[in-house]
Amino acid sequence: VKLYKAFEKSGAQLLKAISIHLGLGDRYFEAKIKNGNSILRSIYYPPITSEPKSAIRAEQHEDINLITLLVGASAGGLQVLNLKQEWLDVIPEQNEIVINVGDMLQRLTNNYLKSTTHRVVNPPKADWHKPRLSIPFFLHPRSEMDLTCLSSTVTSTNPLQYPPITAGNYLAERLREIGLKK
To answer: Considering the entire predicted model, what is its pTM?
Structure first.
């Protein structure tokens, strides 16, 4: 509970900064995330005991939520895709948090803020015996949050990219797409 509350507080501060940057004031996300659908999840990757079929532990993907916060994992392997389509290792130092923009924030900002494409690769062979544990916090808003693209992000050079939808309906749609909901 203590870790969840700390992530929730830090996530709210980050969203406050984002909303100020977007010209929405400092309280735009406040009511939208209070008692939201956020998830604190532990992801365990067991040691590798035989030659894997792939060098990838978790295929490239983006997170569905507004933002994801991740404290350093017990082992490396996290990579992000940059704008040049290059995979970069993410190695947080002690007391650093990795922050990913999620699909909901990308949608809300009409692609002004891009969802972070990331993956987890296998460690070097010398480290196969080590498991990997990561604990991401997926900051989700309340289901009724309107994800209609902000009018300030819709321009002649960046026309409207998405139809209106609520966060709850968008989450359900995405979970069906990836087979986690019927």
So the answer is: 0.93
